[in-house]
Amino acid sequence: MRIARTNVPESKFILGDIRKLDLQPIYDAVISIDVFCHILNLEELTTVFQKVYTAMRCNGIFAFTTPTVEEAWLTTIFENRYNFEYFNRIIEGDTSILIERYYNHNHEEKIREVKFTSLELINEVWQRSDSTMLVKDYLISEIKSALANAGFIEINKYSSRDFGDDGPVSAPLFVCRKPSVLQ
């Protein structure tokens, strides 16, 4: 949050668990990048979408990215029941290196383990830290259903490539709207 406050000091920041936030409907738009993959079950995800819905004004736009899997792809990729490393990414800076390693963890639940190793140059000495997190890959149909159950309409899914993303992995982008009172 320190970086965000430095870059946008006039903004108000709220630190909290999105599953427990209760906000008044004051937002015209809500944008989220790769947050919802950390909500590990569909019931909680639907609750989060309901909280976002409540925090938005009528006709508000909700846009977010989150990893998903296609139903057809799911049966192909998860036929192998063993854990295996399937994706690595290295991000290098002048004074830091981040290594991400993705592992299949629970095929039935579509939850994977992500291991991070970071190296940071501090006072001319490289410091290492390691961390692990779980990430849920939802089916596109599950995301759309959870959004509809929360009350959103005009639910669309795009590829980040549609908006100029030329990264190694295309991220799905969901865009939907809270209806007006009259609808």
Notable traits:
183 residues, alpha+beta, 4-stranded mixed β-sheet, 4-stranded antiparallel β-sheet, 10 strands, 21% helix, globular
Strand content: 35-45%
**Helical residue percent?**
10-25%
Structural class per helix/strand content?
Answer: alpha+beta
**Based on CA inertia axes, which overall geometry fits?**
globular
Question: How many alpha or pi helices?
Answer: 4
Largest sheet: 4 strands, mixed
Radius of gyration: 19 Å
Q: H/E element string?
A: HEHEEHEEEEEHEE
Quick structural summary:
The protein has 183 residues and is of the alpha+beta class.
Your description of this structure?
The chain has helices at residues 2-7, 42-55, 71-77, 140-150; strands spanning 27-33, 56-65, 68-69, 85-92, 96-106, 111-122, 125-136, 138-139, 153-159, 172-177. Strands 1-2-10-9 form a four-stranded mixed sheet. Strands 4-5-6-7 form a four-stranded antiparallel sheet, with no helix packed on it. By secondary structure, the chain is α+β, with helices and mostly antiparallel strands.
List the helices and strands and how they pair.
Elements: H1 2-7, E1 27-33, H2 42-55, E2 56-65, E3 68-69, H3 71-77, E4 85-92, E5 96-106, E6 111-122, E7 125-136, E8 138-139, H4 140-150, E9 153-159, E10 172-177
Parallel strand pairs: 1-2, 3-8
Antiparallel strand pairs: 2-10, 4-5, 5-6, 6-7, 9-10
